[in-house]
From TrEMBL:
InterPro entries hit by this protein: CysI, NiRdtase/SiRdtase_haem-b_fer, Nit/Sulf_reduc_fer-like_dom_sf, NO2/SO3_Rdtase_4Fe4S_dom, NO2/SO3_Rdtase_4Fe4S_prot, NO2/SO3_Rdtase_4Fe4S_sf, NO2/SO3_Rdtase_FeS/sirohaem_BS
Protein name: Sulfite reductase [NADPH] hemoprotein beta-component
Source organism of this protein record: Archangium minus
Source organism, top-level taxon: Bacteria
Binding site for siroheme: C481
Length: 570
């Protein structure tokens, strides 16, 4: 298994940490046992990501602690691996319990259909991860230089095709899961298996150069934003059956302010495959990236840069060489929307699903809106399952018609029904976590979103646009965790209270937006948007979205290509 270094530059430090780690063990066990600090050893902070956790500190009190000469208030974020975002009521109840006993009393639903717990102390880390595993969920590969949580449209009760796609999602997640026993030894006290030579058959000892993300989607819904993934599979249906998938590669969102060598990129469509080829195609895409991805510069190490540098034709030829066959031409696909469809939907089996709006995915009790408690009560009586959406919302799925009234009553009692009456702008908006836990945040996102939306709602209402569904996404830095470069309006944090404003995405996740204003504060944001709202109200064409309008009328530059055009450099 070769790991080609495409440049003569030295390998990045993380590569050395991985190489020395004995398949992700490092000194994690020793770090966890060290009573003198709430932190773990610096090299272990890289390795623990592969186990589904990040060391963080409370940034709200960082300065105060520094002045008191105390170490930062260290704690850990834990992220689950949850293919397609599906969990049982029992698993929900276990996570709810862990959130209240060992974390900060909230559950965070992420933009990749997973759960996050925040604020777990080092002393509670092992028992929390063990508690998650006791529910038959795990956290392995939720972070780190490996394939992350695999996404798919979250509502398999809706059609046979969705059910099939969910099964492929689980299989793909399992297939690309690291095979090291380190996770089970460190967190679950399982014995080292004597005499067995351990290996990582897909990844090798240094795993991938960088994180890797995959999703499967059933058109016309593009709620997973398939073109933002390193690897995407688009289901092709004939008479309702999945006959194969179009393969897309090389998407990604992350960028760095002021560094034009980094940029968001939409994935390229490279061909069509039959269902039984999915796992080998995925494995070989991963292996091409393993062997040719840049291991010297982590800002240039995603698959999108490998493809951008070497060309998509090179990539396809390298992939086909490994597969031993050529891909068929991609089939035509049409996407209509990348948002969630809120409210009640009856499935093909007669059972109901309810898609609930959860602002920024934060499940918490806030005054009269008792989401955490309300959903706990629902989980106690619910006989179907829960499905986390890629847009930070939640589906209570598989509700028998006779059970619906009880669930409705619980949601009403806990003030959740009222939150569902929010404006389309609010319900469709995404915000990443940002402050106070995210080490990389430059500005607020989740905590700022509610107020910002309120201000925008007032401006929209002044132009009779209060019912418009405009896709707003905000992140605390240019890494793009809420996939902002696909939004109609995006704010990307630059400094406290200051953002870059991007405009011109579509509602289908197929066009990158453009930088419109740089480094502006709240007044600047409102001043920039106000005349555009007025013009949109006045001059839009029937059915035209806000993003399409800003492009058509030349407020933002027209797209070069709808896919694969690295134009929204942050
Ligand atoms: Fe992310 C890093 C949160 C989805 C691109 N992301 C982080 C970290 C771990 C910060 C860090 O490295 O110290 C954030 C933890 C914050 C916290 O306190 O919880 C973080 N990312 C999130 C979540 C929780 C955002 C959310 O509000 O839901 C999402 C968790 C998803 C999951 O369950 O796995 C999350 N991150 C994404 C996405 C969206 C997606 O995957 O569809 C992206 C853009 C797509 C992509 O990867 O290109 C994304 N996160 C990044 C990047 C930029 C990567 C790059 O290629 O440049 C970083 C920074 C990094 O890796 O160095 C990052
Ligand atoms: Fe943190 Fe930036 Fe991701 Fe937001 S976009 S969670 S600020 S890394």
């Amino acid at each position: 298994m070769s790991t080609k270094n495409p440049t003569t530059s030295p390998l990045s430090e993380v590569e050395h940490i991985k190489a020395r780690s004995r398949l992700l063990r490092g000194t994690l066990a020793e770090s966890l046992a060290d009573p003198l600090t709430g932190a773990i050893a610096p090299a272990d902070t890289q390795l623990i990501k592969f186990h589904g956790s990040y060391q963080q500190d409370d940034r709200d009190i960082r300065e105060e602690r520094r002045q008191q000469k105390l170490e930062p208030a260290y704690s850990f974020m834990i992220r689950t691996r949850l293919p397609g975002g599906v969990c049982t009521p029992k698993q929900w109840l276990a996570l709810d319990e862990l959130a209240r006993t060992h974390a900060n009393g909230t559950l965070r639903l992420t933009t990749r259909q997973a759960f996050q717990l925040h604020g777990v102390l080092k002393t509670d880390l092992k028992r929390t991860i063990a508690g998650i595993n006791a529910t038959l969920l795990d956290t392995i590969a939720a972070c780190g230089d490996v394939n992350r949580n695999v996404m798919c449209n979250p509502n398999p009760v809706e059609s046979r095709a969705h059910e099939v796609v969910h099964q492929w999602t689980v299989r793909l997640s399992e297939h690309l899961r690291p095979k090291t026993r380190a996770y089970y030894e460190i967190w679950l006290d399982q014995e080292k298996v004597a005499g067995v030579e351990e290996e990582e058959p897909i990844y090798g000892p240094t795993y991938l150069p960088r994180k890797f993300k995959a999703a499967i989607v059933v058109p016309p819904l593009n709620d997973v934003d398939v073109y933002s993934q390193d690897l995407g599979f688009i289901a092709i249906l004939e008479a309702g059956e999945v006959v194969g998938f179009n393969v897309v590669v090389g998407g990604g969102m992350g960028a760095t302010h002021g560094d034009n060598a980094t940029f968001p990129r939409l994935a390229d469509e490279i061909g069509f495959i039959r269902p039984e080829q999915l796992l080998e195609v995925a494995e070989n895409v991963v292996k091409v990236q393993r062997d040719f991805g840049d291991r010297t510069n982590r800002k240039h190490a995603r698959l999108k840069y490998t493809i951008e540098d070497r060309g998509i034709a090179w990539f396809v030829s390298e992939l086909e060489k490994r597969l031993g066959y050529t891909l068929q031409p991609a089939r035509p696909v049409v996407f209509e929307h990348n948002g969630d469809r809120f409210g009640w939907i009856q499935g093909h089996d007669g059972r109901w699903s309810l898609t609930l709006f959860i602002e920024s995915g934060r499940v918490a009790d806030r005054e009269e809106h008792r989401l955490l408690t309300g959903l706990r009560e629902v989980a106690r009586v619910h006989k179907g399952d829960f499905r986390l959406t890629p847009n930070q919302n939640l589906i209570i799925a598989g509700i028998a018609p006779e059970d619906r009234p009880a669930i409705e009553a619980l949601l009403e009692t806990h003030g959740i029904t009222r939150t569902q009456r929010a404006s389309p702008l609010r319900k469709n908006a995404l915000a990443c976590v940002a402050l106070p836990t995210c080490a990389l945040a430059m500005a607020e996102a989740e905590r700022y979103l509610p107020d910002l939306v309120g201000l925008l709602e007032t401006r929209l209402a002044a132009h009779g646009l209060e019912k418009e569904n405009i896709l707003l996404r905000i992140t605390g830095c240019p890494n793009g965790c809420a996939r902002p470069y696909l939004a109609e309006i995006a704010l990307v944090g630059k400094a406290p209270g200051r953002y870059n404003l991007f405009l011109g995405g579509d509602k289908r996740g197929q066009r990158l937006n453009r930088l419109y204003r740089e480094n502006i504060d709240e007044a600047g944001i409102l001043a920039a948007l106000e005349p555009l709202f007025a013009a949109y109200a006045r001059d839009r064409q029937p059915g035209e979205g806000f993003g399409d309008f800003t492009v058509r009328t030349g407020h933002v530059a027209p797209p070069g290509a709808e896919r694969g055009a690295p134009t929204a450099r942050a």
